[in-house]
Amino acid sequence: MNDGRGRSDGPSGSDGPGGSDGLEEPKTYGEFDEPGEQDGDDVRVGDDPAPEYVTADLLSLLLERAREADPDDENVVLDATAAGDLVDAPPALDPTTPVLTHFYFPSAGGSVAAVFGMDLGRPSGRARFLSHPDGDRRLTEADDLAATVLVATPPYEADDVVAYDRRGRRRELVVVDAEPPEERVAE
C-alpha cells in the first residue's frame, strides 16, 4: 500500500525504484522524463521548441574569451536585443524574437562587491555563457543559472557550444549573422 508520498508499507519496504524508502533519486541536469533522441552526451533537445538565438560576432568573442581563460573557466552575463532592432537581421526571424547580442565584463562591479559584499555592478541578464574546460557539456549544480545558459567546451569552436534552459533542458542554438544597432550616449 502506498502512503501518497511514493512510499510503500509492504513487507520489504522497497517497492519503489529509489531504494529502501521507495522514493526516486533526484534528477540531475541533462536527465529527462521521457526517453528520446539523444546526442553523444546523453542530452536531447527539450520539449520547448523555441531555439535560442545568438549573433555570430558575440559567439565568436565568447569563444575567444573561453580559449584565453583555459584552463580556468569563464562565466559571462549575456543580454539580448529584439531581432527587429538588429542590423541585417534575417527577414524570416520574428522582430520580437530576443537575440543574444551583448555581454557584461565579469569584473564589472568588483569594487562595489568588495565594499558591500554583493555584486551590484552586473545585471542579472537573460542568459549566461559558461566554459567547462574539463570538456563536460552538461550543466552542473555548481553552474550559475539563468533563463538560458550556453556551455562551451574545448576546443571552443561554434559546434562546442550547447544551449540549455534554466531547468537543464537542451535548446537548439541558432547563430544569426546580424549586428545590434549602434548605441550612443545622449549628450
Describe what this molecule looks like in 3D.
This protein has helices at 56-69, 110-116, and strands spanning 52-55, 75-82, 98-104, 127-131, 148-152, 161-165, 170-171, 173-176. An eight-stranded mixed beta sheet has the order 7-6-5-4-2-3-1-8, covered by helices on one side. It has two helices and eight strands, in the order E-H-E-E-H-E-E-E-E-E. It is an alpha/beta fold. A hairpin with a 4-residue loop joins strand 6 and strand 7. Mean pLDDT is 75; it is low at 1-46. It is 11% helix and 21% strand.
In angstroms, what is the radius of gyration? 21 Å
| Overall pLDDT | 75
Q: What can be said about the biggest beta sheet?
A: 8 strands, mixed
Question: Helix content range of the residues, please?
Answer: 10-25%
Major sheet strand order: 7-6-5-4-2-3-1-8
What's the helix and strand layout?
Blueprint: E1 52-55, H1 56-69, E2 75-82, E3 98-104, H2 110-116, E4 127-131, E5 148-152, E6 161-165, E7 170-171, E8 173-176
Parallel strand pairs: 1-3, 1-8, 4-5
Antiparallel strand pairs: 2-3, 2-4, 5-6, 6-7
Name its key features.
187 residues; alpha/beta; eight-stranded mixed β-sheet; 11% helix; globular
How do you describe this structure in short?
With 187 residues, the protein is an alpha/beta fold. Helix content is 11%, strand content 21%.
